[in-house]
Amino acid sequence: EVQLVESGGGLVQPGGSLRLSCAASGFTFSRSAMSWVRQAPGKGLEWVSSIVSYNRNTYYADSVKGRFTISTDNAKNTLYLQMNSLKAEDTAVYYCAKNAEAAPGPPYNYWGQGTQVTVSS
């Protein structure tokens, strides 16, 4: 059974940092592509970043490029999102997702439960 469990969300002031984690199980993590997708209040899903585990190639939305860093620890089957210089517009529920193919981009075939990130003073 595939499971994705996010953690690390919370309340942070503008300009602050958070690191999200996603513990994965039930599939070959080192051969997969993984993504972070977020949903702000009252808005649709927005792709944030992807990583292809076997070659570590990374991809970012323009809105987070230079501020967020996606990474994996294949020994721990864990996906990370380091978020720096956070802005109010980064406030959202952040979901970890497994890409259906070992390549960036949708579709996604499994999702975590989400973790809330709130950026506010």
Please explain how this structure is put together.
With 121 residues, the chain is mainly beta. It has no helices and eleven strands. The protein has strands at 3-7, 10-12, 18-25, 33-39, 45-52, 57-60, 68-73, 78-83, 92-99, 108-111, 115-119. The strands form two sheets. Strands 2, 4, 5, 6, 9, 10 and 11 form a seven-stranded mixed β-sheet that branches.
What are the SSEs and their pairings?
Blueprint lengths: L2 E5 L2 E3 L5 E8 L7 E7 L5 E8 L4 E4 L7 E6 L4 E6 L8 E8 L8 E4 L3 E5 L2
Parallel strand pairs: 2-11
Antiparallel strand pairs: 1-3, 3-8, 4-5, 4-9, 5-6, 7-8, 9-10, 9-11
As a percent range, the share of strand residues is over 45%
Number of helices: 0
Overall 3D form: globular
Q: Give the end-to-end Cα distance, rounded to a whole number of Å.
A: 40 Å
Q: Biggest sheet, in brief?
A: 7 strands, mixed
Number of strands: 11
User: Structural class per helix/strand content?
Assistant: mainly beta
Question: What do the pLDDT scores average to?
Answer: 95
Helix content bin: under 10%
Following the backbone from N to C, one meets helices and strands in this order, namely: EEEEEEEEEEE
Radius of gyration: 13 Å
Low-confidence parts: none
Index terms:
53% strand, seven-stranded mixed sheet, mainly beta, single chain, 121 residues
Condensed summary:
The protein is mainly beta and 121 residues long. The protein contains no helices and 11 strands.
